[in-house]
Amino acid sequence: MKDNRVSQVLKRMKEDNIPQIIVSDPLAIFYLTGYFLNPGERLYALYLNENGEHKLFVNALFPIEEDLGVEKVIFTDDDDSVGIVAKYVENGKTIGVDKNWPARFLLALMDKCSDSKFVNASYIIDTMRMFKDDEEKELMRKVSLMNDEACEKIIGKITGDKTEKQIASELLKMYEDMGAEDVSFPPIIGMAANGANPHGEPGDRYAKPGDAIIVDIGCKKDMYCSDMTRTVFWKEVSEKGKEVYDIVVEANRRGIEASKPGARMCDIDAACRDYITEKGYGEYFTHRTGHHIGLEDHDYGDVSAVNELVAEPGMIFSIEPGIYLPGEFGVRIEDLVLITEDGCEVLNKYTKDLQVIGND
């Protein structure tokens, strides 16, 4: 196991009077052990106890030959997996669990350990993961530059005879050829009115002159995620399109400028949102300004009007203001920023200059 991270978890457990926790999120287990497993519907959990009697519960279907520095407790599909876990936990003491542990496991364990109090302990590892160490920072830089390259390439592949779906499919093949492990999320290619849906799915639309095209993409490399958005225009851009684009780019710039140690997340959100509102488009900025990112595209934490959390060095989150005009078009510009000691480092380098493509 990664002893320094496990030690931090145990320290937080002691501070919060949680003597034992069951970590079931595969990414959280990876964060603590360096080993990733997708168990599907089967029980998979790392048990940490303040007394040091840690266990990794894993189905025999998934043989783990590596020495992870923790005793493995193996069971089969014929075994009562929850009952096996119950033999090791200390009934009568508080048990911390993950926020997303399936009810079929949690309720069964609550029934078997009726003398214990169960609490959501996800925040312990979630908040630790908000702060990237030097190795994680380098991995995030690497995958973000890969995503920059993919963004430039896929924008260059957009033609008038390809649908949003076809462009998205080309991107997936491109990521594979570049050595990415997977996408961070299903890519969003949104033309014209489809781009006015912030999370619109690629469809059968073809680009028409004047269309704004949102390209929101991300890939994974070495388990870490990238995420970025650029908006381009096909063949031509209207005055309204240029106006909206310029506003969003400036809002993005202001959000980045506000991203520094000591700034509250709500203040960073306001730096983007207040400018868009000032320009008369406030009602069309319909989502938070950003989200934290790392092992997941949407890690714990956000950049929103209600989050008073203070930015600290090591945090990485997105700055992605947008304006979405129903029935017309949308514009979003997104970069990832790494909070440094005196400001922030922007992880995305691909141009944010207004691009009108398709005229070659």
Structural description of this entry:
- The structure is a single chain.
- This protein is an alpha+beta fold and 360 residues long.
- The protein folds into two domains: 3-129, 3-Layer(aba) Sandwich (Creatine Amidinohydrolase, Chain A, domain 1), CATH 3.40.350.10; 131-357, Creatinase/methionine aminopeptidase superfamily (Creatine Amidinohydrolase).
- It contains nine helices and 20 strands.
- The chain has helices at 3-15, 26-33, 81-88, 103-112, 122-129, 134-157, 164-178, 239-258, 265-278; strands spanning 20-23, 45-49, 55-59, 71-75, 95-97, 118-120, 182-183, 188-191, 212-217, 219-221, 224-225, 228-234, 290-291, 302-303, 316-319, 322-325, 329-332, 335-339, 344-346, 356-357.
- The strands form six sheets. The chain has a six-stranded mixed beta sheet with strand order 4-3-2-1-5-6. Strands 8-9-12-20 form a four-stranded mixed beta sheet. Strands 7-10-11 form a three-stranded antiparallel beta sheet.
- A hairpin with a 2-residue loop joins strand 10 and strand 11 (224-225).
- Helix 8 packs antiparallel against helix 9.
- The protein is elongated, with a radius of gyration of 23 Å.
- The mean pLDDT is 97.
